[in-house]
Structure formats: C-alpha cells, structure tokens
Amino acid sequence: MTTLKIEIDVLEAVKEFYPGLSEDNADLIARQIVHDWDYSEQYNTIVDEIHRTADSYDIELEGKDGPEVESNNIYVLNPPPSRLFP
Question: CA 86 to CA 79: how far, in whole Å?
Fold first, then answer.
C-alpha cells in the first residue's frame, strides 16, 4: 500500500514567515509550536474530507467501523423570561 502523507517543516515555515529571526529564535518558536500542537483539528478536517470525497464518489461509509460522531446538542432547561426563549 502506498503511504500518503501531509508534512510541514515547521522550522522552515517560521523562517519563511519571519526571515529576520535568528536561527536560535526560529528554532525555539518552531520547537514550541510542535510541542504544543493540537492535532485534533487536522483529524477533524480529514474526517470531513473523507465524508465529502466518499459522497462525491457514492462510496457508502455506514457500517465501515468509522469514528463515532458526537452531536453537539445544546438544550436550555428552565430558560429565564426573555424574548430569546419564547
């Protein structure tokens, strides 16, 4: 199977955005970005793209052991009197 990757060289990105930074400062910033990075948004984007692409090719994903999708349901219980809550 072919390996398909999306990679970003964070140090190079820092240097491209701020070429005036010293090597040490660029390295410090890049290391901190990598250390603190939250990958959940990238995975959410990939899942969204899987669904979009599967739909466009009529590929059925139901029953294929995919991730559980949580719904963000917000309920207001006992709302205060307001025109916002008729």
Answer: 9
Q: Convert the pLDDT of each residue in 6-40 to its tens digit.
A: 999 999 999 999 999 999 999 999 999 999 999 88
- The H-assigned helical ranges of 1-86 are 10-17, 23-36, 40-56
Using an 8 Å Cβ cutoff, are 11 and 27 in contact? yes
Residues 6+ away with beta carbon under 8 Å from 34: 10
Please, what is the Cα angle at 31 between 26 and 5, to 5 degrees? 105
Residue pair 79/85 in contact (Cβ under 8 Å)? The answer is yes
Cα separation of the two ends of the chain: 57
Delimit the domains of the chain by residue range: 10-56
